[in-house]
Design goal:
The complex is a heterotrimer of chains A (409), B (250) and C (136).
Chain A lengths: L6 H4 L4 H16 L3 H27 L1 H4 L10 H24 L10 H20 L5 H10 L6 H24 L3 H27 L11 H28 L6 H33 L3 H12 L3 H23 L4 H25 L24 H24 L9
Helix pairs in contact in A: 3-15, 5-6, 5-9, 5-10, 5-14, 6-8, 6-15, 8-9, 9-10, 10-11, 10-14, 11-13, 12-13, 13-14
Chain B lengths: L2 H10 L7 H14 L8 H7 L20 E6 L8 H10 L9 E6 L8 E6 L8 H5 L5 E3 L6 E3 L9 H5 L6 E3 L4 E3 L17 H5 L5 E5 L6 H6 L6 E2 L11 E4 L2
Parallel strand pairs in B: 1-10
Antiparallel strand pairs in B: 1-8, 2-3, 4-5, 6-7, 9-10
Chain C lengths: L1 H19 L1 E2 L3 E4 L9 E4 L6 E4 H7 L27 H5 L20 H4 L2 H17 L1
Antiparallel strand pairs in C: 1-2, 2-3, 3-4
Classes of the chains: A mainly alpha (409), B alpha+beta (250), C alpha+beta (136).
């Protein structure tokens, strides 16, 4: 955690100085508001509890405690994974506009975004760890027996590379090596976008699942990532300043304004995407039509109209316009609503692709035409735990890295 | 090609109302879609139905596999006695919560005369298997010799992508094996030990399941599938999976 | 007095339904109603799930009891399946159901298999029906 002075780079320092540095660090860490520590301990506890649920699930067997089953093998754990890695990629994309492509107005948000992109990716990995049945085999066989036609393989490998690049970038940013950070950031951006579009293609290349099949998924995923990135930046930057009781300085205000404007544009793009996904879906294969009907008018109608459309797209869009990109409080509320809506977007994406029975066209009595999935407590607790991990790491990051301040040069 | 009639006949499946012309067209398309061209080669088919999907197997000149294991179901004979399911479960140690083969019950109250039909399903050992394409660790692969889509259980990480990719609900996670399991045409339990047919085909008392080598003109499977005057179909051809399991009546 | 008679007859009716619906190892017997003329019988040997419906043959088709009993079938459910020759070959030769299901009197027994062969699924369905009645 020692980030301030690098004793190796600065030469040998005396024992007293080293101890003094650590003591200083400790006192600073412990000098926060009560609320800060309460939140920290609470989120830490939640992480532990959810980990317990996860380990219990591993012990008892996932099929006994999760709501997934043979016909619907992917549930909210997969959508939770998608949620976190989408946010991570988005944070990378938006922050790279600043320090990779040199758009100076977006520089202030860069450090925090890079830090959070690593955090959210790790949260995603935590969720997937408790979904995959043999997680410890992943590292071995992904390396020894790769399948170049597998989107999952590409996604896993590229996200691994992405994690490395983003971590390196963050460290480089901390020691103010901006040139090298730019390189790491660029590599992170490329691997992030490649990984993320492969994640979209995991769904989009499955011809057996009409709701998902097609080139739309990878494209939509990248657009959605960018929008989620803006959401996360506004959300966490606002919170970061609030918990430190700090006022926004001018460059940061301008940066958030820029992010807000970008976000509004991306929301418009997403609304356009979703509209055409639905319209073209109605002219699609019967499997697709059945899924879309269920999504819009069936059991998932509330998910779609209230959570996805209203909370996730329309309300944030209008709040942003109302705020004129200047009222940061309104923008924060928009980001909060959007986060909730986005989570439901991921759930619907994953589940609705599987609810149309494989044999729906054969009039079989063994399966209903539309299958159902209900998440269980274990799955929900794991998602909550991953969120708590983000909160916990975010809080620690704010304290340790002192609000991620950047010198604009 | 009268598509309306084609699909109507698909649903009715009474041999009487399918004219020969339709059957011929049907068979041609069915064979193209399934990657088998009567007297032709897979190479032809791939260039005709170019889907641009990467497959992990090379395209051979003729029937690429020897023997090219395949199964034909005569669904009008199926009586859901489920002796095949019992035989499969016993032979392959299939746990209670899973199945490698299943009998589906089709009911159409609008059908004339018979309103119920039983339809066995199992892994189709596709020629263009979506599961093999999607598996990150090649834990599932199409055997180069026999065409059977097999499992290398020790490599399976349990991501369940293959389960989602399969259009036929053929796969399930086996907790005892700690890997995905599915029909392997009794390769491990019987064929690799010198037996000639699968447990389910042997157990069927009604002659529903015909198992054999699609590349051998003397095999029952070859003879049924290569009849111009016989309606032979596959499940969900639109997915492009090119299944190796065929359905017919009569 | 009237009330007692009504009560008694309902009881007897209910009991007869109860008594005539049973699940054994040999199969399932399920009495739909008095007018059905006999129970729905699902055989389990030599294969599971073969349905004979008294309701269809007696109530809907109007066949009298003598058309089968006792020349072709005894009036005891599952008696036939205890015979070793209770199989499709015998039917094709005119025994058992084949006496009528020969293509002339009724559809040939080597056609429309799933009409009578309700299978394991049909057997389980009727078992549930019979169990529901037994609970009452």
């Amino acid at each position: 955690m020692e980030k301030k002075n690098n004793p190796v780079a600065e030469g040998i320092i005396s024992k007293e100085e080293f101890t003094q540095n650590w003591l200083q660090f400790l006192t600073e860490f412990l000098s926060g508001s009560k609320g800060f520590y309460i939140l920290l301990i609470l989120s830490g506890l939640i992480i532990l509890i959810s980990a317990m649920f996860g380990v219990n699930a591993m012990y008892v067997g996932y099929s006994h405690v999760y709501g997934i089953y043979r016909e619907i093998p992917w549930g909210i754990l997969i959508s939770g994974y998608v949620f976190f890695v989408v946010t991570s990629t988005g944070l990378c994309i938006i922050s790279s506009i600043g320090h990779v492509f040199g758009v100076k107005s977006l520089l202030p948000i860069a450090k925090r975004s890079v830090y959070l992109s690593v955090v959210t990716l790790l949260a995603g990995f935590m969720v997937i760890f408790f979904d995959v049945e043999n997680p410890f085999r992943m590292a071995i066989w992904n390396a020894l027996s790769p399948n170049p036609t597998s989107n999952i393989w590409w996604m896993g490998t590229l996200y691994g590379a992405y994690l490395v690049f983003m971590s390196i970038e963050f460290l480089l940013l901390l020691i103010a090596k901006y040139r090298y950070a730019m390189v790491a950031g660029l590599l992170g951006l490329i691997s992030g976008i490649a990984a993320h579009s492969n994640l979209g293609a995991v769904f989009g290349m499955l011809h057996g699942r009409e709701f998902w099949y097609g080139p739309y998924m990878p494209i939509y995923f990248i657009a959605s990532a960018a929008a989620s990135g803006c959401t996360a930046i506004i959300f966490f930057t606002y919170l970061g300043y609030r918990i430190r009781n700090e006022r926004f300085d001018k460059p940061m205000e301008l940066a958030l304004q820029a992010v807000g404007k970008l976000w509004a544009l991306l929301l418009a793009v997403l609304m356009f995407f979703v509209t055409w996904k639905v319209i073209t879906g109605f002219a699609g294969a019967e499997g697709k039509v059945l899924a879309i009907r269920e999504w819009l008018f069936g059991k998932y109608a509330i998910n779609f109209w209230f959570f996805e459309v209203f909370l996730g797209l329309v309300a944030p869009f209008f709040l942003l316009l109302v705020s004129r990109f200047r009222n940061l409080n309104q923008m924060f509320v928009a980001s909060l609503l959007a986060f909730i809506g986005i989570f439901f977007m991921r759930v619907d994406l994953v589940v609705i692709g599987q609810i149309v029975s494989h044999f729906f066209e054969y009039n079989v009595t063994d399966f209903p035409v539309i299958l159902t999935y209900k998440p269980t407590l274990h799955e929900i607790m794991l998602i909550i735990g991953a969120c708590a991990l983000c909160v916990f790491s975010f809080l620690i990051g704010e304290k340790v890295f002192k609000g991620h301040h950047t010198e604009i040069h | 090609m009268n598509w309306k009639k084609f699909f109507k006949n698909l649903k009715m499946e009474e041999q009487g109302c399918v004219p020969d012309e339709t059957k011929r067209e049907f068979l041609k398309i069915g064979l193209i879609i399934t990657g088998v061209a009567a007297g032709g080669s897979l190479l032809n088919v791939v260039s005709v139905v170019a889907e641009g999907l990467a497959t992990s197997e090379e395209v051979h000149k003729e029937y690429p596999y020897k023997p090219h294991y395949s199964m034909v179901f005569r669904v009008d004979r199926c009586i859901d006695c489920e002796l095949c399911v019992e035989a499969c479960n016993q032979t392959n140690n299939v746990p209670e919560y899973g199945w490698r083969t299943k009998i589906l019950e089709r009911v159409d109250t609008k059908a004339v005369d018979q309103q119920r039909q039983f339809m066995p399903i199992l892994c189709n050992h596709c020629n263009n298997p979506p599961c093999v394409r999607a598996c990150p660790t090649k834990a599932t692969y199409k055997d180069k010799q026999t065409g059977i889509v097999k499992m290398a259980s020790y490599k399976c990480i349990g991501c369940k992508t293959c389960m989602v990719a399969c259009p036929y609900d053929a796969r399930y996670f086996n907790e005892e094996k700690r890997a995905i399991d599915k029909c392997d045409f009794c390769w491990e339990s019987r064929l690799s030990k010198g037996m000639k047919i699968t447990a389910c085909s042997e157990a069927c008392p009604a002659g529903v399941r015909i198992f054999g080598d699609l590349s051998d003109p003397n095999s029952e499977v070859y003879k049924i599938v290569h009849q111009m005057g016989k309606a032979v179909w596959v499940l969900k051809p639109e997915t492009g999976a090119k299944p190796n399991v065929f359905y017919t009546i009569g | 007095m009237k009330r007692i008679i009504i009560l008694a007859s309902t009881l007897i009716l209910g009991l007869s339904v109860l008594v005539l619906s049973e699940i054994t190892e040999e199969g399932v017997k399920y009495q739909e109603s008095e007018e059905a003329g006999g129970p729905e019988i699902v055989y389990t040997k030599p294969v599971k799930g073969v349905l004979f419906s008294h309701k269809l043959h007696v109530k809907e088709l109007g066949l009298p009891c003598e058309s089968c009993h006792t020349a072709i079938f005894e009036m005891e459910a599952f008696k036939s399946q205890r015979n070793p020759d209770f199989n499709m070959d015998s039917l094709y030769k005119g025994k058992y159901c084949g006496a009528c299901h020969n293509g002339q009197t009724a559809f040939a027994s080597n056609t429309k298999c799933a009409t009578c062969h309700v299978g394991v699924k049909g057997l389980e369905r009727l078992k549930k029906k019979a169990q529901a009645v037994e609970k009452k």
